[in-house]
Specification:
The structure is a homodimer.
Chain A lengths: L23 H7 L8 E2 L2 H4 L4 H16 L1 H24 L7 E4 L2 H17 L8 E5 L4 H12 L4 E5 L8 H16 L5 E7 L11 H10 L4 E5 L11 H4 L3 E5 H4 L7 E5 L21 H5 L8 H4 L1 H11 L3 H24 L13 E5 L9 H15 L1 E2 L2 E3 L12 E6 L6 H16 L10
Parallel strand pairs in A: 1-10, 3-4, 3-5, 5-6, 6-7
Antiparallel strand pairs in A: 2-8, 7-8, 9-12, 11-12
Helix pairs in contact in A: 3-4, 5-6, 7-8, 14-16
Keywords (chain A): Pyridoxal phosphate
Organism (chain A): Quillaja saponaria (Soap bark tree)
Protein name (chain A): L-cysteine desulfhydrase
Chain lengths: 441, 480
């Protein structure tokens, strides 16, 4: 008596008639689980997942629950490999071995940095050797560098970046300066951690140029943190040339929480990366190790084929089309807000992808990071606007400058009304002579 | 204009009328998503999750997707703390700070062992200091010990355990012997990793006694790996007295994949544990670090209140009642099988919880771990029985001994028919006049072929055999 051991077909969302792109009303339907009372202009923080993909994910979840042993033996590895292969093609990697799937960029950072810690411990690196990171690196990555590099005796140098920023050159020259500081006293720069798109404040970094400089200056390894990357900006491993590159697929590529890829260039310089959660697959290569880190729900990692099908079938221009429309619209909305509030953008449009920084009126009196958090909660709870805010301390001599910026995102579910709602909320606060001192402690 | 920022009520499965325990038919309904064609007597490997809890989980998932920023700021930490508090009470920990929630025991092991690696690196431990583990420790834990302890210069000593095993004393004396080996040459035993219930072969270890011995012998830290623990055997932190203790909640406590707790005793001996995936919460204590390791689906960690409500409302005696009934039934089923196959159990019933090892008939000719994997696949694909098998190499001098054991589990969804199905499958394999045949198929895959009464019979038994090349047919013909 045979039981169900045949290969289960790939879950596919409902297929529309050929060449019928998704309509605005269908998009709203795909995202009808979003809170309709909220102008959700913060796709950057947690991303989004269409209903079709949630459905595909639940099919995978039930498949595991139905007969987990059969699933583990016959389905899981194949499914992960299929996802990795699609990602490899998307990011122009040479070989699927270079692509591992992990939970998120935070996990990828831990993988790269743990390797650095071992290198110090095992004498490959010397005490005082340097890791360079951007001052605007994501908080979790900064802590990870402290936990693995500083703790191991490595020295950390931060690249000071200007904000607002006016051109790539400003970033490139600061980066060179930081590398020089790193190489002082005869030390080696062992690792450069470079954001592809910084989180706060949000700026697209000229990573290709910075990686090139790292090669020229003899930096051992370059790790690009592109938490905001795939589905948002151009992600081409050959072009960028980094040793390690990570990006979340749940932010801008419609996957459910959570899934990211970690690219590790096959190269002469051996890199002995391991997933910190060690399973019986230890030693079989990072991709294989990461595909089994104990019993867990791997469904978010298995829906990648469904997502690509959804994006390519339903959206004109597929992912490229979405990226372009997101960029054009977020710039347009940013300029609309900056004009309405008489402020400015945090960077030129070419240094943005699908997010942009817009100055808030100085009269709101944003004087600390704490103010931005309270003001943000105020917008969320009293205006139905979800938007992250950034505090930019005034420089010496500056008077009445813009000290608060909003990072607005645009994704396919956003409407012009979302940004109008934000514009009007700020205008209402300004009209009422609101300042942050009015917010409760 | 206010948006939805009120505290969202806890998702509660449909509430039955008071004092109405779940019926057999309601249980089958809760687990109707299980493959009905499979006798699923392997709850130990991946656990199970009732439909009510899947539903509760999906409510949490949608809550996050609906407005993730609001969820992160207002719901997540509270929800995790609520789960931790429930677990603290369940396991009799002193303080909720001692309870961290992680993905699974594999992750918990990495957390404990990474701390050990730092201790070597930072000079707290010396090269050659010892970690002791059981020979039957889980494969992933062994690799983790290699990756963190051996790689750091630590020496690893394995406690050889007998199997079949007859009493706790056999385990205790081997453990003492291993500790003595560890303390030889003036080295310190820095860590003992002790399974509460070994995976394969499956035996309940006398952890309380072993922890006590560790204290007497000056072992620095004791880590109990109870992947099989909560919902399966008695899990009492005060009683057991370990420094670290981990158990999966998705195995025997009906949670969806995946969730485990890691208990870390608050004590004088400082233990600087960190989650290896470092977030901005680094330094705020392991429990807080573990509650945020980047954007992820935390829903499996948030359904613990719903699970406890389900278990306590619907099952007589709550979790204790389930544990007892699972134990009694799996022992009964094990004895039934051992009698039918004329073999024996791998340990006395008191050394079992809700799983038991049953010897398979020697004439099946299980001669390697590879044989057990193929035979297991054979049971899965051709008999609709899901059961893990263990290869026990014969000792010197042993002839015709039992070399294969099945680890059968019992959980609330199992029926007597599941075990009858397994009994009959084995009996069917035994009914053969041609003895044991091992043949290669066209991919060189070695098949254990039993139970055919004629040349035609063996062809129809397994359609995959039809793919064997002509050359193989010749070999078979010669063997017959």
């Amino acid at each position: 008596m045979r039981t169900t051991s045949m290969v289960t077909p790939l879950p596919i969302p409902k297929k529309p008639k050929i060449s019928s792109f998704i309509t605005q009303s269908e998009i709203q339907s795909e995202f009808s689980h979003h809170d309709p009372a909220v102008a959700r202009i913060n796709n950057g923080s947690f991303g989004c997942c269409p209903a079709s993909i949630i459905e595909a994910q639940q099919i995978w979840q039930l498949k595991f629950l139905r007969q987990p042993d059969h699933f583990y033996v016959n389905e899981l590895k194949k499914g992960i490999l299929r996802s990795r292969t699609i990602i490899k093609d998307l990011v122009h990697a040479e070989h699927v071995d270079e692509i591992s799937i992990v939970d998120n960029a935070t996990t990828a950072a831990a993988i790269v940095l743990q390797q650095t810690a071992w290198a110090f411990k095992e004498g490959k690196f010397e005490k005082g050797d340097v890791a360079v990171m951007l001052h605007y690196a994501y908080g979790s990555v900064k802590k990870s560098i402290e936990a693995y590099v500083s703790r191991s005796g490595g020295k950390v140098i931060e690249v000071q970046l200007p904000f607002p920023v006016n051109s790539n050159d400003e970033i490139i020259s600061e980066f060179r300066r930081a590398l020089e500081r790193g190489k002082a006293d005869g030390k080696r720069v062992r690792l450069a951690v470079i954001d592809h798109i910084t989180s706060m404040p949000c700026v697209v970094i000229p990573v290709k140029e910075l990686v090139q400089i790292c090669r020229e200056e003899g930096v051992d390894q370059v790790f690009v943190d592109a938490a905001h990357g795939i589905g948002c900006t151009d992600v081409n491993m050959k072009e960028i040339g980094a040793d390690f590159y990570t990006s979340n697929l749940h932010k801008w590529l419609f996957c459910p929480p959570s899934i990211a890829f970690l690219y590790c260039r096959k190269s002469a310089k051996s890199s002995d990366l391991h997933h910190p959660v060690v399973s019986h697959e230890y030693g079989n290569g990072l991709a294989v190790e990461s595909a089994w880190i104990g019993t867990r729900d791997y469904s978010a990692q298995l829906v990648v084929p469904s997502v690509l099908e959804f994006v390519n079938n339903r959206f004109e221009g597929g992912i490229e089309g979405i990226k372009k429309r997101n960029h054009d619209t977020v710039v347009e909305m940013g300029e609309m807000l900056a004009k309405a509030w008489e402020t400015h953008l945090g960077s030129p449009p070419y240094m943005c992808a699908s997010m942009i920084m817009v100055g808030l009126p100085a009269c709101l009196g944003i004087n600390s990071e704490s103010d931005t958090m309270k003001l943000r909660a105020h917008f969320r709870e009293n205006f139905g606007v979800e938007v992250p805010l950034y505090y930019r301390a005034p420089k010496d001599g500056e008077v009445g400058s813009v000290t608060g910026y909003a990072r607005i995102s645009h994704q396919v579910y956003n409407k012009v009304n979302d940004y109008d709602k934000f514009r009007d909320a700020v205008s209402q606060l300004v009209g009422n002579r609101f300042t942050c001192t009015l917010l409760s402690k």
